[in-house]
Design a protein that fits this description.
Blueprint: H1 2-5, H2 9-20, E1 24-25, E2 28-29, H3 40-55, H4 62-82, H5 103-123, H6 129-149, H7 157-182, H8 187-208, H9 214-228, H10 235-248
Antiparallel strand pairs: 1-2
Helix pairs in contact: 2-4, 3-4, 3-7, 3-10, 4-5, 4-6, 4-7, 6-7, 7-8, 8-9, 9-10
Length: about 260
């Protein structure tokens, strides 16, 4: 992964620096109230896709950095809400840790959703609110599907693909499409990057479900690569190809870090 992010490491530091300023509020550090742990890949993947996609069509400006942070805020919020145990008592966490309860994680997730909106305002890119709101709707539709099927044994292949498309692939497609749009990419180029993001996202979502889905994931990874050949050549396209290659070679860890 280092070879992919090395050319944009300073930009990634800016994204993280901007976000870290909002992780401490008057009540304390947000990580004390909700689980914010992510594997190394998921801690940077969405910003990486935004920056590399934008970089194909222009310089990495402060607005690109802000958009990268916005997508990561939304991802964090969705992860927190997805991890909440709806069956526990609202007033008591089973472990005594507020991060394992319901009230605090809900509030932290909502805080991140609010922070993404203020970030759009601060960066002067409020016109991106509609596609981002539509993306959030699709992600939450996926959450409904997941909860509806949670009582079943095993995963039906068709709903499984629909689930990862909504909960994972839609956001990755938006990272690529909106990053390119912000730097002036044409409609066809945006759609090409969107298709790349969908295929890559479905592969990622399948791999996150376990080793039994790896063969299916490889199909989508190989489907993603030709889309990149339709885009302007250069270091950013090369980096995206190398990112897909890391997955094809199983050189990416999806294990969750322990907080």
């Amino acid at each position: 992964m280092k070879q992919v992010i090395y050319p944009i490491k300073e930009e990634l530091k800016k994204v993280q620096g901007n976000m870290n300023r909002h992780f401490n509020i008057k009540a304390g550090y947000l990580g004390d109230f909700a689980h914010l742990e992510l594997c190394q890949l998921n801690s940077i993947l969405r910003p990486v896709l935004v920056i590399l996609s934008a970089g194909m069509f222009g310089k990495i400006t402060d607005r690109v950095i802000s958009l990268a942070g916005v997508l990561q805020y939304i991802y964090l919020a969705s992860c927190i809400h997805k991890g909440i145990n709806e069956d526990i008592e609202i007033t008591q966490a089973p472990t005594g840790d507020p991060r394992d309860g319901c009230q605090f994680p809900v509030l932290v997730g909502d805080y991140f959703y609010g922070r993404f909106f203020t970030s759009l305002c601060d960066a002067g890119i409020v016109d991106y609110l509609r596609p981002l709101a539509e993306m959030i709707c699709v992600i939450n539709e996926g959450g409904v599907i997941r909860l509806r099927n949670s009582g079943s044994t095993g995963i039906n292949p068709s709903p499984g693909r629909e689930l990862v498309r909504k909960e994972t692939a839609e956001m990755l497609a938006s990272c690529c499409r909106l990053g390119a749009r912000l730097n002036g990419a044409g409609g066809q180029q945006q759609e090409t990057l969107g298709r790349f993001g969908v295929s890559f996202g479905i592969a990622l979502g399948l791999m996150e479900q376990g080793n039994s889905f790896e063969e299916q994931a490889v199909v989508y990874l190989r489907e993603a690569l030709p889309e990149l050949d339709k885009l302007p050549p250069g270091p950013n396209r090369t980096a995206l190809k190398e990112l897909v290659g890391l997955f094809l070679r199983r050189e990416v860890s999806l294990e969750r870090m322990v907080g």
